[in-house]
Amino acid sequence: MEFPENSYSVDDYITLNARDRQSVNGNVLTWAIPQTYYTNRRSQVCTVEVVSGCVAENSVNGSVDMVIISYENGAQNSYSSSNASPVIGIAGQSVRGSNVNDETFSIAAAGQLLTQARPNRISLRVESSRRASLGNGTTPAFALVPNDANDCQFVICLKFKYYNQLKTASNLEDQFDMPL
Questions:
Q1: Among the CATH numbers 3.40.50, 2.60.120, 2.40.50, 2.30.30, which is that of 12-171?
Q2: What are 140-157's pLDDT values in tens digits?
């Protein structure tokens, strides 16, 4: 989503490291973001996207083809056929070391998500594209190692971009087609 001459020039960048997480619930990692980081002069209209990131395979359990990162805070401009949280990043294998278990997955952006501005918590679901045939068939085939923070090698940088509320409302109104 890009509105010409509608974005503020300074974006917020937040780097999240698995070692600094506040909590882990299954494959969902949550970080607390201090409100003092943000200025209250920012707009309420905001998009979030991945700038970069990586996850090391030695921090996952099981076989991995691709790593999918979902933004658990929600988005207003995203739909999932599985009724899941919107995908914010996808990582494929980028480096293979001499050890077959020594792989790094670089995270690529999946798009800009229209979301809540200035979140005090950020939650990301990190899972494999493969699914294990456990229970209802939706259990991820691997999980980040949650027990030892030193083993969990996952880092992602998110960019929060803010938009002028009045110009955004005007742009959206211009796109709206009234039924006859």
A1: 2.60.120
A2: 444 454 444 445 577 899
